[in-house]
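Before drawing any conclusions, I needed to go through one protein's amino acid sequence and its C-alpha coordinates, quoted below without any editing.
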Amino acid sequence: MKEKMLGGYPFASSYLLELSVGGEEIEVIGRFSLHSEEGICLIPSIVSHRWSDLNLGTPEAWYVAYTLMNRPKKAELIKQHFANVGINEEMKAYFSNKPVGQFVRDNLI
Protein backbone atom coordinates (compact mmCIF):
# COMPACT_ATOMS: atom_id res chain seq x y z
CA MET A 1 0.00 0.00 0.00
CA LYS A 2 1.28 3.46 -0.82
CA GLU A 3 -0.15 6.91 -0.56
CA LYS A 4 -0.41 8.74 -3.86
CA MET A 5 -0.62 12.42 -4.62
CA LEU A 6 -4.13 13.66 -5.19
CA GLY A 7 -4.86 14.73 -8.74
CA GLY A 8 -5.29 18.46 -8.13
CA TYR A 9 -8.31 20.48 -9.24
CA PRO A 10 -11.19 19.50 -9.31
CA PHE A 11 -10.30 16.85 -6.72
CA ALA A 12 -10.61 17.76 -3.04
CA SER A 13 -10.51 14.29 -1.42
CA SER A 14 -8.70 13.69 1.87
CA TYR A 15 -6.33 11.01 0.63
CA LEU A 16 -5.60 8.54 -2.15
CA LEU A 17 -4.11 5.12 -1.47
CA GLU A 18 -3.00 2.55 -4.00
CA LEU A 19 -3.34 -1.10 -3.08
CA SER A 20 -2.14 -4.15 -4.94
CA VAL A 21 -4.67 -6.98 -4.69
CA GLY A 22 -4.06 -10.16 -6.64
CA GLY A 23 -1.70 -8.33 -8.96
CA GLU A 24 -4.26 -5.60 -9.71
CA GLU A 25 -3.85 -1.99 -8.64
CA ILE A 26 -6.83 -0.54 -6.77
CA GLU A 27 -7.22 3.07 -5.70
CA VAL A 28 -8.93 3.91 -2.42
CA ILE A 29 -10.10 7.49 -2.17
CA GLY A 30 -10.80 8.88 1.30
CA ARG A 31 -13.69 11.32 1.59
CA PHE A 32 -14.12 11.53 -2.20
CA SER A 33 -14.79 15.23 -2.78
CA LEU A 34 -14.79 17.54 -5.78
CA HIS A 35 -14.78 21.29 -6.30
CA SER A 36 -17.75 23.03 -7.89
CA GLU A 37 -18.39 26.72 -8.37
CA GLU A 38 -20.34 26.58 -5.08
CA GLY A 39 -17.67 24.93 -2.93
CA ILE A 40 -16.46 21.43 -2.15
CA CYS A 41 -18.96 18.61 -2.64
CA LEU A 42 -18.50 15.34 -0.75
CA ILE A 43 -19.51 12.42 -2.97
CA PRO A 44 -21.04 9.76 -0.72
CA SER A 45 -20.05 6.11 -1.02
CA ILE A 46 -23.49 4.55 -0.76
CA VAL A 47 -23.93 1.10 -2.24
CA SER A 48 -26.95 0.79 -4.52
CA HIS A 49 -26.30 -2.56 -6.25
CA ARG A 50 -24.02 -5.57 -6.27
CA TRP A 51 -22.56 -7.03 -9.44
CA SER A 52 -20.16 -10.00 -9.57
CA ASP A 53 -19.49 -9.65 -5.83
CA LEU A 54 -18.64 -5.95 -6.23
CA ASN A 55 -20.45 -3.12 -4.45
CA LEU A 56 -21.61 -0.44 -6.86
CA GLY A 57 -22.20 3.15 -5.83
CA THR A 58 -25.36 5.06 -6.63
CA PRO A 59 -25.68 6.33 -10.21
CA GLU A 60 -26.71 9.73 -8.80
CA ALA A 61 -23.41 10.08 -6.94
CA TRP A 62 -21.47 9.06 -10.05
CA TYR A 63 -23.47 11.50 -12.19
CA VAL A 64 -22.46 14.33 -9.86
CA ALA A 65 -18.85 13.12 -9.75
CA TYR A 66 -18.46 12.72 -13.52
CA THR A 67 -20.08 16.11 -14.11
CA LEU A 68 -17.78 17.86 -11.62
CA MET A 69 -14.76 16.02 -13.08
CA ASN A 70 -15.78 17.34 -16.52
CA ARG A 71 -16.38 13.88 -17.99
CA PRO A 72 -19.56 14.64 -19.95
CA LYS A 73 -19.72 11.37 -21.92
CA LYS A 74 -19.87 9.30 -18.74
CA ALA A 75 -22.31 11.71 -17.10
CA GLU A 76 -24.55 11.56 -20.18
CA LEU A 77 -24.64 7.73 -20.08
CA ILE A 78 -25.86 7.91 -16.48
CA LYS A 79 -28.40 10.57 -17.40
CA GLN A 80 -29.76 8.17 -20.05
CA HIS A 81 -30.01 5.53 -17.32
CA PHE A 82 -32.13 7.96 -15.28
CA ALA A 83 -34.46 8.41 -18.28
CA ASN A 84 -35.01 4.63 -18.32
CA VAL A 85 -35.29 3.83 -14.61
CA GLY A 86 -35.75 7.15 -12.82
CA ILE A 87 -33.74 8.93 -10.15
CA ASN A 88 -33.45 7.75 -6.55
CA GLU A 89 -35.44 10.38 -4.63
CA GLU A 90 -33.31 9.97 -1.48
CA MET A 91 -30.13 10.73 -3.43
CA LYS A 92 -31.84 13.63 -5.17
CA ALA A 93 -32.77 15.02 -1.74
CA TYR A 94 -29.22 14.43 -0.46
CA PHE A 95 -27.67 16.47 -3.27
CA SER A 96 -30.36 19.19 -3.18
CA ASN A 97 -28.56 21.02 -0.36
CA LYS A 98 -24.96 20.22 -1.34
CA PRO A 99 -22.60 22.48 -3.32
CA VAL A 100 -23.03 20.59 -6.61
CA GLY A 101 -23.04 23.60 -8.92
CA GLN A 102 -25.79 25.02 -11.08
CA PHE A 103 -25.40 22.59 -13.99
CA VAL A 104 -25.91 19.57 -11.73
CA ARG A 105 -28.72 21.32 -9.93
CA ASP A 106 -30.49 21.97 -13.25
CA ASN A 107 -30.00 18.43 -14.53
CA LEU A 108 -30.40 16.23 -11.44
CA ILE A 109 -32.43 18.04 -8.81
About this structure: Strands lie at 2-3, 15-21, 24-30, 33-36, 39-42, 47-51, 54-57. The first helix runs from residue 59 to 68. The longest strand covers residues 15-21.
